[in-house]
Amino acid sequence: MASFYSYPELFLAGFIFTLPFLYEKSNVFRYYLKFFLYYAYVLITCTVLLPVVLLYPRDVTNLVVASRFCRYASHIVGIEWELRGLENWNNEECYIVISNHQSSLDILGMFEMWPRMKRCTVVAKRPLMFAGAFGFGAWCSGLVFIDRLKTEKARKLMKQATERVIAEKTKLWVFPEGARYNKGSIQPFKKGAFYLAIDAQIPIMPVVFSQYYFLDNDTKTFEPGKVVITTLPPIPTKGMTRNDLETLSDMARQQMTEVFNESSKDLVRQSKIAM
Fold first, then answer.
1. Do 154 and 146 form a contact (C-beta atoms < 8 A)?
2. Tens-digit pLDDT profile for residues 45-58
3. CA distances from 275 to 30, 66, 75, 124, 201 (A)
4. Is residue 21's pLDDT more than 80?
5. Beta bridge partners of 172
6. Rounded to an integer, what distance in angstroms lies between the CA atom of residue 229 and that of residue 231?
7. How far, in Å, CA of 156 to CA of 160, rounded?
8. Residue-level pLDDT at 10
9. DSSP alpha helices (H): ranges in the chain?
10. Contact, 134 vs 70, CB < 8 A?
11. How far are the Cα atoms of 30, 36, 89, 263 from residue 11, in angstroms, in the given order?
12. Rounded to whole angstroms, how far apart are CA atoms 80 and 132?
């Protein structure tokens, strides 16, 4: 008996056969496909892990468990991570961790670091809390979700988070630039993280992600690449007052900019040679 295929089946078969060609020839297709696979993998993994994190709700060590599985998304999208300065982490100390923020891919680098950081949570935008299993799992793992438009409430949540950091000897990760920026520099810092550190008299821990030279949102380019994540020595705030806020912020940004430029230089040069 003759076998007939429906138009949807023929369309699907044709699409599958053209995938390798599109992936090889189209930057735009490769860009969106990689982000789709990244988000899909993390979302599915978070869904599977929900019963585990629900056993210990709001426990930041859930992030260590999640990272052991979610980190494999880096292999899917072709990113290699190199961690430097790990000797600066002291799991018996509490810190306000600050880092530059270039893309949602930053979370993949953090997945690489969580087994070392052990007890560390993150300040994130409130809309992420409603991102399905990922948002619920993140909330169960102690993430602090703030609405930047509701300034007073955000300050209260940040203060509560800092008190927990001190009480539980953990770490609070903040992106002081306030928004993603992947243009080859570190933008001026907002002051919230530095207020918290000075008021609580706990150190600032700068962490620097090298430039995402392989990613360009404007041209929709997402190639394989390598990122160096450097942890700098903590900056103490003992004895500082709010009068020292600008000095502390400028000092941290200057140190981070120097490391950003240095760690990015060789990677960018090597990528140009390989082209």
1. yes
2. 999 999 999 999 98
3. 17, 35, 21, 36, 48
4. no
5. 96, 121
6. 7
7. 6
8. 66
9. 7-25, 27-53, 62-70, 73-77, 106-117, 132-140, 151-168, 192-200, 245-274
10. no
11. 20, 21, 53, 46
12. 27
- For helices 62-70 and 27-53, give the axis angle rounded to 10 degrees: 140
| 272/265 Cα distance (integer angstroms) | 11
229-258 burial, b if ≥16 CB within 10 A, otherwise e?
Answer: bbbbebbebeebeeeeeeebbeebbebbee
State residue 176 phi and psi, 5-degree precision: -70, -15
CA distances from 78 to 5, 13, 33, 40, 75 (A): 36, 26, 12, 15, 5
Gap between the Cα atoms of 66 and 120, Å rounded: 13
The mean predicted confidence, pLDDT, of the chain is: 90
- Would you place residue 2 in the very low, low, confident or very high pLDDT band (cuts 50, 70, 90)? very low
Q: Which residues partner with 173 through β-bridges?
A: 97, 122
The distance in angstroms from the start CA to the end CA of the chain is 53
Chain segment 106-164, per-residue pLDDT in tens: 999 999 999 988 899 999 988 889 888 899 999 999 999 988 767 788 888 888 888 88
Nearest to 141 by CA among 116, 120, 167: 120
Bridge partners for 81 per DSSP = 227
Whether the model clears a pTM of 0.85, i.e. scores above it, the answer is yes
Token reading at 194: 């530095």
For the cut 90, the answer to whether the pLDDT of residue 14 exceeds it is no
- Rounded to whole angstroms, the Cα distance separating 105 from 80 reads 12
CA 193, CA 202: separation in Å to the nearest integer?
Answer: 11
